[in-house]
Amino acid sequence: SGGVSTAFGGFTKGMPLYKPVIAAINGFCLAGGMELALACDIRICTPDARFGLPEVRWAIIPGAGGTQRMPRAIPQAWANYLILTGEQIDAETALQAGLVSHIVPKDEILDRAMKIAETICERGPLAVRAAKEAILRGQDMPLDHGLALEDLLEIRLMASEDAKEGPRAFAEKRKPEYKGR
User: Fold this and answer.
1) Distances from the Cα of 170 to the Cαs of 11, 79, 163, in angstroms?
2) What's the pTM value of the predicted model, to 2 decimals?
3) Active-site residue numbers?
4) Residue 37 has pLDDT above 70, yes or no
């Protein structure tokens, strides 16, 4: 296209990232910071966090993905409110709207983000990648196409060593040792 991308030099646009990204939000998460957080898969915050897309106050729009990702992240009514008014919401409202999954004390925020990352890392890496691919690609498809994509990814996974290791470890009551193949 002939337009100029203002998406943080393209950081939040383009090729999808199939590795999970976690945002640990402390304090203000506004404008570009909010758009960057929206590009993350999991968002947690501290009790004093504030969220918003104030760009309409400045006669511009959230042009780094905010108008597209916000309505995909939370219910349409909340997305419309935040984008069209430029108002801010607090952490509790963000939790109720589904913008964040947890509110964590300030002194625990990084530890909680790391714990979430560690939990994901304990899962089968091929399955985590496939799940994220299904989520990202499927949201832009009709449901029947998304289900077909899910089937295709599942068939590929079932041929992996990891897909055999997971149930075997469960049956043997031990922690799985995934190899990523």
Assistant:
1) 39, 41, 11
2) 0.84
3) 35, 55
4) yes
